[in-house]
Structure formats: structure tokens, C-alpha cells
């Protein structure tokens, strides 16, 4: 099912939480909403599910306005940050609870529970109480319960934030697999950029209640529309300058700027997209930080300073003269401001 949020605005008291939010998620795709704490991510999920009513705008599912449809009629699965299982019920009973809405009992319910135990890879745990399984297993049960009534849309609110990085990665892979197998349309809220880059078909960046950019992970990372989006996705270098007749002029030198309109622009480049040339001379290594897998150097001249990331051991020394290479394909120009 396709989700289309149109011009959604939401206030709590005098505070405007969401302003003219437009989000489209195609059927069978996973969109993640990435934003800082308090940006309004959960509020968007609550509006899609019907737990909260927007002040303005429409929630469209497959072309139908469901803004006035009650929560229980929407058949949308919702997985919360913590699993929220019923502690006095077994794993099987918790999943069965998800079927209440469908009024499935007997053999049909048993068959569906069996399918879900297999899908979430938790077979053998059905008779255990939630206190007798791990945090990761509890979250699998919560996902099984949300999927029990066969929703075509699944909303996930930072579902893996309490898990350790390895488990978090595994759960992400499992969600991708389930999403594809069941052709689910998923909206996934996170404030972890790596998680969103790894999982999503599309990412929507929410800054101060507005969608700053919505695009593929590659474009969000490599072609951010603003400094705020660029910084949200990781370390970056910004170089101010001017485009004139297909050339960008700056303190860093001149670069080809084919198809760029003339005017004041900012050149954006990620630290790992710059290469250090040991044969060159025009820059100096000013500092360096070893991060284990990678080394981050500050490299500069009197006029300009850049972060450069290399993989592996430290091979350049502070004070060493080097050159820098800027592969043309990695250069992205943005409007100033
Ligand atoms: N029921 C409510 N009444 C008043 N204010 C609320 C209510 N629910 C949320 N808020 C406020 O709305 C803002 C957005 O909340 P929301 O939970 O959507 O943010 P979020 O991006 O999901 O944050 P986090 O990443 O911390 O979960 C916050 O400032 C929050 O305090």
C-alpha cells in the first residue's frame, strides 16, 4: 500500500511540531525518517497510525483519505522503541493477542502464529514468558505481534535503539528480509544515520518539524540540499566560492563546475572522498586522529582547512607537506545559505 502524507501540520498547544510535511512512500518500500530528538518523528508515525490527529493536511493510503478512520480500522502495524510485551503472557499468547482484531481462533490462529515464529526466527520460544527471553528476542516477538493481523503497512519507532550494535545490525537485516518477503510498506524512525543508510530505499530528513530533504540514501549522503542535511549525515567540508562560466573559484583553487549556474556557491565534499597524495607539496598535515579502522587528518594551507579520512594505519606525519586529490565525481555544489 502506498502512503501519501499531504501538507501535514500539527501543534501541541502553541508549539508547532510539524509544518507542512509531505511524505510519499511507495508500496513495498522502506522509508526512514531521520531527525534529532524532538524533531517530530514519532508524531508523524502517530498521525499515520491514527493515534494522533493532524491539525491540517491529509493522510492518504492508496489514494484514499483515511484521516477520519479510527486506529483499529486502519490495519497498520506499529512497533515501539521498547517491546511492550504483556509480562503475564507467554510468547505465543502475546503474538495471539495481535490476532484479536481479526478474530482468528483455533487452527487458523495456530497456523498464523507458526508462520510468524518462523519468519521472526523465534521457534522454540513460544511457551516462555517475556522475562525468560533476551531483549532482541522480545523485540522479535513484538514485531511478530504487530505483523499477526497481516498489515500491509508497518511503522517502526526506533525499534532497535536498546540493542547492542551487532544485534542491531542483525535485526536490520531481518527487517529488510521480512519487508521484501511480505511486500510491506515500512516507515522506520531512527536518529542513527548508519542504520537509515543501510536499511532504506528512501530517507526523509526531518529538521525542526519540516522535511529538509527526501531522497535515496546515496543522494542524501552525497548530494545534500543544505549544510544542515550534510552535517546531519556525517562529517563534511564546505568551501565557499563562486561559479563563473563552468569553473568554481575558491581559496582551495579552481574546479570544473559543469552545468552549474553562475553565482556564489559552496563546494561540499566528504572527508573520505578526498585523497592524500604523498608526492604533493601544497598542503600541510596539521593534526591527525586515529579512530581504529580509519585516520582523520586535518590538512590545510594558510587560507583553508579540510578534514580528510583514510582507511588503515596512519601514514602521514603532522607537519608533512602533501597534495590533495579531489575526484571530480565527488564534487557537489550547493547554494550558499
Ligand atoms: N502529547 C504531547 N503533548 C505535548 N507535546 C508533545 C506531545 N507529544 C510530543 N510532544 C512534543 O512534540 C515534540 C516532538 O515529539 P516527538 O516524540 O514526535 O519527537 P521525536 O522526533 O520522535 O523525538 P525522539 O527522537 O526523542 O523520540 C517534542 O518536543 C515533544 O515534547
Automatic annotation (TrEMBL):
One GO cellular component term noted in the UniProt record for this chain: ATP-binding cassette (ABC) transporter complex
PROSITE patterns recorded: ABC_TRANSPORTER_1, ABC_TRANSPORTER_2
Enzyme type, top EC level: translocase
Pfam families tied to this protein: ABC_tran (PF00005), TOBE_2 (PF08402)
Presence of the UniProt keyword Plastid in the record: no
InterPro entries xrefs: AAA+_ATPase (IPR003593), ABC_SmlMolc_Importer (IPR050093), ABC_transporter-like_ATP-bd (IPR003439), ABC_transporter-like_CS (IPR017871), ABC_transpr_FbpC (IPR015853), Mo/tungstate-bd_C_term_dom (IPR008995), NA-bd_OB-fold (IPR012340), P-loop_NTPase (IPR027417)
Domain of life: Bacteria
Catalytic activity, EC: 7.6.2.9
UniProt keyword annotation of Amino-acid biosynthesis present: no
The protein's name in its UniProt record: ABC-type quaternary amine transporter
Organism: Anaerosolibacter carboniphilus
Amino acid at each position: 500500500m502506498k502512503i501519501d502524507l499531504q501538507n501535514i501540520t500539527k501543534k501541541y498547544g502553541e508549539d508547532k511540531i510539524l509544518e507542512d510535511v509531505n511524505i510519499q512512500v511507495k508500496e513495498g518500500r522502506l522509508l526512514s525518517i531521520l531527525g534529532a530528538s524532538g524533531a517530530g518523528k514519532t508524531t508523524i508515525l502517530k498521525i499515520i497510525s491514527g493515534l494522533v490527529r493532524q491539525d491540517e493536511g491529509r493522510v492518504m493510503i492508496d489514494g484514499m483519505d483515511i484521516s477520519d478512520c479510527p486506529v483499529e480500522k486502519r490495519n497498520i502495524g506499529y512497533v515501539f522503541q521498547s517491546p511492550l510485551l504483556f509480562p503475564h503472557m507467554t510468547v505465543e499468547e502475546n503474538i495471539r493477542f495481535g490476532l484479536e482484531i481479526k478474530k482468528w481462533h483455533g487452527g487458523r490462529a495456530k497456523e498464523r502464529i507458526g508462520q510468524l515464529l518462523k519468519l521472526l526466527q523465534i521457534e522454540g520460544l513460544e511457551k516462555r514468558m517475556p522475562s525468560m527471553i533476551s531483549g532482541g528476542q522480545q523485540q522479535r516477538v513484538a514485531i511478530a505481534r504487530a505483523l499477526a493481523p497481516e498489515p500491509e503497512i508497518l511503522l517502526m519507532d526506533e525499534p532497535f535503539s536498546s540493542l547492542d550494535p551487532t544485534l542491531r545490525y542483525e535485526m536490520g537485516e531481518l527487517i529488510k528480509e521480512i519487508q521484501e518477503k511480505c511486500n510491506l510498506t515500512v516507515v522506520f524512525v531512527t536518529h542513527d544515520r548508519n542504520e537509515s543508510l543501510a536499511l532504506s530505499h528512501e530517507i526523509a530528513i526531518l529538521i525542526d518539524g519540516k522535511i529538509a530533504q527526501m531522497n535515496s540514501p546515496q543522494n542524501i549522503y552525497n548530494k545534500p540540499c543544505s549544510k544542515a542535511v550534510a552535517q546531519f549525515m556525517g562529517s563534511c567540508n564546505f568551501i565557499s566560492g563562486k561559479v563563473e562560466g563552468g569553473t568554481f573559484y575558491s581559496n582551495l583553487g579552481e574546479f570544473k563546475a559543469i552545468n552549474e549556474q553562475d553565482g556564489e556557491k559552496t563546494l561540499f565534499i566528504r572527508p573520505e572522498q578526498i585523497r592524500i597524495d604523498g608526492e604533493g607539496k601544497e598542503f600541510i598535515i596539521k593534526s591527525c586522529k586515529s579512530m581504529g579502522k580509519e585516520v582523520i587528518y586535518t590538512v590545510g594551507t594558510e587560507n583553508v582547512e579540510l578534514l580528510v579520512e583514510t582507511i588503515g594505519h596512519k601514514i602521514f606525519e603532522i607537519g608533512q607537506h602533501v597534495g590533495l586529490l579531489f575526484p571530480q565525481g565527488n564534487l557537489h555544489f550547493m547554494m550558499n545559505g
